[in-house]
Design goal:
Number of strands: 16
CATH topology of the domain at 2-167: Ribosomal Protein S5, domain 2
CATH class of the domain at 2-167: Alpha Beta
Distance between the termini: 80 Å
Number of helices: 22
Strand content: 15-25%
């Protein structure tokens, strides 16, 4: 007898429909799985056999062949266990097959017959709805996450025996509701930072437009402290953005089953490998730049990262996507991030009065950050050591809180959302060249200033457009529709090179 049950395999951060076909014939007992399964899928034969027997169900004695179609797609992971078990029960007549066409099934089995949670349930649920399935059966641990998808009935089950009762009509499915989003705000407040008004201004502009930022200064000046407070002034993600973030974290196995309420903040160590940063592996998996999608990727001690890892960021920063090819298996991951970097002024990292680095050593240190990479950074600002007065002044009223700054950032983003409606860009930093020139009206003084600065060699074409986008954000923070000369001048001030900052 032949039976077929639908499931979904992860493909990057998306899912692809897989038909699990089981054929039961007379013959010597054998159980073979075909269709490019990996080791974890092949091992499911033993998990399915033990789970059925320990649940009081029959494991048929005969020649069993399970095909995972389409056969040219590699299948990986234990999430096929439950689908194989249901297809085997249907082929042996232990569950009715009439209604199986309405179901998609996904889950890992333990030897006792209970179900364990799997990664990527949200991506599976989105795929099931896209393919027109009415019901999705998943482990109870994954059911609230899958329930985030509207228009799909999600059924959470604890054991394979419970699923059999459900298919036989002996029990009704329990309603599943998504978990409430966490209301926790990012830790740390911008008011904790003493002084550093210029750096706070750069941080606010970067947050308002989604721009990339590099902070240069001596150790202990507050670069890392500033960067880690950036999430507290970013606007909350929209519902569609929250679903994107949750789906990525679910595929990576770092989600908590709740809809994301804040933008991600990822800060990998500088010893990370290029595949760890941009994605890859034998079976392509998202890297840190994808885990930070719609949020912040913070590279502390940026000049200490390997050259290969940093250069791997060039294409994602420009296109917002990462294309990975491993073992002839292509994968595309989203990577729309704000890159925030922090670096010292020289290799030793000491104050200028104590620095003994030669010009050659400093030049070699700067060359770790290539020109094309720096060209993709909108703001480069210096962070000097705070003064003694800033450190000992305990008057908390001097510094603005993150809530006050965030209100301005949210207002600026709302102006951008209205202006960019109907385009693929969600903020100023994501505009392409034609859209930039269309949405950045310059007054006469601003155009005159830009012509005087933009001599051959002063700015690349990419840097020119990024200056316009940055000036657009500065005007949005002030609530002005037309970009003025002061906005362009401030934007140009953030395009200093590293040697110019060191000499400042």
């Amino acid at each position: 007898m032949l039976a077929s049950v639908a499931t979904f395999a992860l493909d990057g951060i998306d899912s692809r429909e897989i038909a699990v076909e089981v054929d039961l014939r007379r013959g010597l007992p054998a159980f073979q799985i075909v269709g490019l399964p990996d080791a974890a899928v092949r091992e499911s034969r033993e998990r399915v056999r033990a789970a059925l027997l320990n649940s009081g169900l029959d494991f048929p004695l005969g020649r069993l062949t399970a095909n995972l179609a389409p056969a040219h797609v590699r299948k990986a992971g234990p999430s096929f266990d439950l689908t194989l078990a249901v297809a085997l029960l249907a082929a042996s007549g232990q569950v009715p097959t009439d209604e199986l066409g309405r179901y998609a099934v996904c889950g890992e089995l333990s030897l006792s017959g209970s179900l364990r949670g799997v990664h990527g349930t949200l991506a599976v649920a989105l795929g099931a709805r896209r393919c027109g399935y009415e019901r999705l059966v998943v482990p109870s641990a994954n059911a609230p996450e899958a329930a985030l998808v509207e228009g799909l009935e999600v059924i959470g089950v604890e054991t394979i025996a419970e699923l059999v009762d459900l298919l036989d009509g002996r029990m009704e499915p329990r309603p599943v509701a998504p978990l409430a989003s966490s209301a926790d705000r990012p830790s740390g407040d911008l008011a904790d930072v003493r002084g550093q008004d210029d750096a706070k201004r750069a941080l606010e502009i970067a947050a308002a437009g989604g721009h990339n930022l590099l902070m240069v200064g001596p150790p202990g000046a507050g670069k890392t402290m500033l960067a880690r407070r950036l999430p507290s002034i970013l606007p909350p993600p929209s519902f569609d953005e929250a679903v994107e973030i949750t789906r990525i974290h679910s595929v990576a196995g770092i989600g908590n089953g709740r809809l994301a309420s804040e933008r991600p903040f990822r800060a990998p160590h500088h010893t990370i490998s290029p595949p760890g940063l941009v994605g890859g592996g034998g079976r392509p998996r998202p890297g840190e730049v994808t885990l930070a999608h719609r949020g912040v990727l913070f590279l502390d001690e940026m000049a200490e990262f390997s050259r290969a890892a940093l250069e791997g960021l060039r294409q994602p920063l420009e296109s917002g996507e990462v294309d990975v090819m491993r073992g002839q298996t292509p994968a595309r991951f989203p990577a729309a991030v704000m890159l925030v970097g922090a670096t010292n002024e020289c290799p030793c990292g000491r104050s200028r009065s104590d620095c003994r680095c030669t010009d050659v050593e400093i030049a070699r240190y700067y060359r770790r950050l290539s020109g094309p990479l720096l060209d993709r950074i909108d703001l480069i600002c210096t962070v000097n050591a705070p003064s003694r007065d800033d450190l000992i002044d305990v008057d908390a009223q001097r510094a603005e809180s993150s809530a006050v700054v965030r209100a301005r950032v949210v207002a600026a983003r709302e102006r951008q959302t209205d202006r960019l409606a109907g385009t693929t860009a969600l903020c100023n930093a994501q505009m392409d060249g034609p859209l930039t020139r269309e949405t950045v009206p310059l007054d006469a003084d601003a155009m005159s200033l830009l012509r005087s600065i933009d001599a051959p060699g002063d700015l690349s074409g990419r840097a020119h457009d990024r200056v316009l986008r940055l000036a657009r954000t500065i005007a949005d923070l002030d609530g002005r529709e037309r970009v003025g000369a002061d906005d362009v001048a401030e934007a140009l001030g953030y395009k200093l090179t590293l040697p110019e900052l060191a000499a400042a």
